[in-house]
Amino acid sequence: MPDVIQLLPDAVANQIAAGEVIQRPASVVKELLENAVDAGASEIKLIVKDAGKTLIRVTDNGCGMSETDARMSLERHATSKIRQANDLFAIRTLGFRGEALASIAAVAQFEVKTKRTEDELGTHIAVEGSKVTTQEACQAANGTSISVKNLFFNIPARRKFLKSNPVETRHIIDEFQRVALAYPGIHLSLFHNDQELFHLPKGSIRQRIVNIFGKHYNQRLVPVEEQTNIIGISGFIGKPDAARKTRGEQFFFVNNRFIKSNYHHHAVQAAFQELIPKGHHPSYFLFLEADPEAIDINIHPTKTEVKFEDEKAVYAIIRSVVQRSLGQYNIAPSIDFEQETSFDIPYAKHKDAPVAPTIEVDPEFNPFKTTSPGTSAGTAPRESALQRSNRENWESLYQDTPTPEAPRQEQVIQANWDEQPAAETKGSFAHQLYGTYILTKIKSGLLVVHQQRAHERILYERYRKALEARKGASQQLMFPLNVELPAADAELLKELMELINAMGFDLREFGQHAFVVHGVPADLPDSAPEALLEGILENFKGHRDLKLETRENLARSLARSAAVKVGATLQPEEMNTMIDALFACEMPYVSPTSLPTIITLSQEDLEARFKRL
Ligand code: ADP
Ligand code: MG
After folding, report:
1. pLDDT tens digits for 426-452?
2. Which of 455, 425, 281, 213 is nearest to 358 (CA)?
3. Fewest beta carbons less than 10 Å away: which of 72, 117, 248, 594?
């Protein structure tokens, strides 16, 4: 029997490859625009006729191609962007597979005109179904113009399956907008059937968003900006009140490549969770920057998916950073903390003499510990990447502050602010004001911490973790305590008992409406467990947000109930411990209910306020 295996003719192989890369006119648009961006163009014009079914033309003023390169660019696996397999892991360009042009030329009438600045004449090549029909020198502007006519002319089945013109046009506009958002520095325009749909001069990302989606977007946008050691995030989110029922404008870019990811979408949605009605969707334009070696963009032929080395950390970072921007946006209208007193109301004025609140110190948390590179994950198992970066940011706030050994004039003045002795916080001082705020100096100015909200945040994160791990540290009471509750409360407590115990209580039923408390969470004062329990139940009933799961509500309730209140006097060490613990949180900037925990007054802010009237 003769051998039967043969290599596919190139034209057929290209057609098969095209099936993966080119599904519709919009796929051609995407590939051509990306090539123009990769070519370093500062101006790109897209012309489309009949939803791209008749003509797609992309003209750029990028680097152009030599005659040989122009011819080579049409070969499959021909790319100028990768030379070695290793390059795959350090890709900064949009294209790299060297498949697009070959694929397009296999399924359309294809024409390229291109010229490099240094060449006198340009090159004109025409291809039809992978066969070169023309190759000649020609007059041409610097840059490249590629025309794709009658897509799928040689594959009637595929052409038949194209959708209506409005649908295919929508897809084209989507691709165009993605590139336009990722590259606000490039002047872009789109013409459809001779009508200019978009005219986008070079500008900032905010200007680009407004140019594309309309003027009303300008006041809706809240900036997002954060650099962590895993990723950088920048861009904008829409204010919660602008969220809409339709899915709307949601854009994720990783290293300027548009990415579809339900996972990361969920992270943003989670940050908005309590701020927008159910069924509404926030809009966002988020740009993630990651080390190309730490991501894999090669998992999908059209490259709209991405995989991060540390998916979970990225999720947490996105969520927190968005949450913080929302928190900061919430402060903007007023910096008046006094207005928010809803949970300052004491849960139960207890007969016991007031106890000085104690603040638990995480014995393993050492703000000065530097993790050795390479083993960071192993050495600090309790600290997430986000916490680490918060802490590092926090430490860097102090970098310029003078050390306590060398007190300067300004510190001496500061020390007189309050009667109580000034404490040292990493070389600075912490002071309490109005029994509500902790003031401390940081490199850039003054940091003001809201003690109750900060403590709620710290405790909340601790209980959340305990609930997830189902083992909160517990401290046994020397004398177990009987607690009798009204029938309804007793029922509620029975329902919640398992979870409450997971936070560190040791609570057992004892008759119909009675319980015995054998232990309480290790970080809480053990003098009033009864008040603590009542507080949890009160808070749980009063603040229960039905959208949230029980654990979330419980963690919040206990945090609210156990946190130091406004009015409580804090000792200097307590203030310092509190500030350190706050910045060791995953989300230090807002309380569990998204109210700001800190504000900063920079030197510029102060100077601005001391200007001549
Ligand atoms: P890839 O973009 O993955 O490298 P393509 O098939 O899209 O593969 O393009 C093949 C090559 O053709 C590119 O690597 C680039 O060198 C060249 N090329 C394509 N379009 C342009 C353009 N608009 N300007 C300059 N060079 C281009
Ligand atoms: Mg390409």
Report:
1. 445 789 999 999 998 877 678 899 999
2. 455
3. 117
